[in-house]
Sequence to fold (174 residues):
Amino acid sequence: LRTMPRRELRGVIAHELSHIQNRDILVATVAAGLAGAVSLLANVFQWGALLGGGSQSDEEGGGSPFGGLIFALVAPLGASLIQFAISRSREFMADAGAAQVTGDPEGLALALERLGRLQEVVEPGPTAEPATASLMIASPFTGGGLLRWFSTHPPLEARIARLRDRSRRPGLAA
Fold:
């Protein structure tokens, strides 16, 4: 509240209200539940492979325990990547919803730029944990490359570019 002018604050509040309107917490909960189920299934395969793979013998087509181990390692990673991708796409949707509600995509773009500049000079606060990152307007953690795959938010530059593109195209902003 102290770092932003009203125009930018209006965009941020509209972004958060758009998350509520789009039921993003429900979507995130379902995605987390599915990721947890996949991880649980992977654990079952892992322990089955480590403890002998069940009652089937190799002659009956029991297969190699290495397939189960590979699944146990790769499945939770894949489920997490899908969960983070869903979260990133919901951020783009909330940005678009904020632009629609306010009729001012540039206001949110300016707010995101301001937050990006603040990230460069201010360390993340005590509530900035990977588990709480999705609850923030922008990811409190910086980094590129592989780290972006595990981020709950798309890069600020991409969000700002989409908002600015929206403000240049008549009919999309309002």
The first helix runs from residue 6 to 21. The chain is about 65% helix and 0% strand. The chain has a mean pLDDT of 80. The two ends are 25 Å apart (CA to CA).
